[in-house]
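Field notebook, page 158. I keep forgetting to write these up properly, so this time I am using the form the group agreed on. The chain and the ligand, 4'-phosphopantetheine, are recorded exactly as supplied. Prediction of the bound pose follows.
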Amino acid sequence: MNRIIYPGSFDPITNGHVDIIKRLSKIFDEIIVVVAHSSDKKSFFTAKERLAQIRDVFKNDKKITVEIWDGLLVDFCEKKKCFLLCKGLRSVKDFEYEIDMAQTNKKLNPKIETFFLSTDPELRFISSSLVREVISMGGDISPFVPRSINAIKKNSKD
Ligand code: PNS
């Protein structure tokens, strides 16, 4: 069975992430979506909330599994015995950040390979950080996130 890990903060998951996961599911037998911890980002939704949001989006798709991981991604890869990672790329700005992570992960564990998928051009402008900003100012996030996430708006004072 060919499997790939799709890691991210997913705070919250956006239509851009959903598109990448759906495209991966046409290529791989299993996509392990992992809600990982980024030490330089303070989260808006808790990891458990993000896990529940993503599971809800893919509740009818048996190929997608979703987990939380609090440690290094390379240790999650070892635990799963899966050494393929995928990240989405929207722009050169993403590339600079992603290439550093991919090369750090490879240095930490040479078995790991990171593949990049380019974002659908229609969804290129969407980011979790802009979605969080729109939520916190009471705006409409429905164009940017799956319907079920749109229903769960976080109280802006959280
Ligand atoms: O959605 P993001 O911000 O691109 O996700 C980044 C994430 C969570 C995948 C990255 O910070 C990560 O891998 N965190 C786990 C801890 C880790 O392994 N850090 C070193 C990465 S080189």
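OBSERVATIONS:
- The longest strand covers residues 30-36.
- The chain has a mean pLDDT of 94.
FOLLOW-UP: compare against the apo run.
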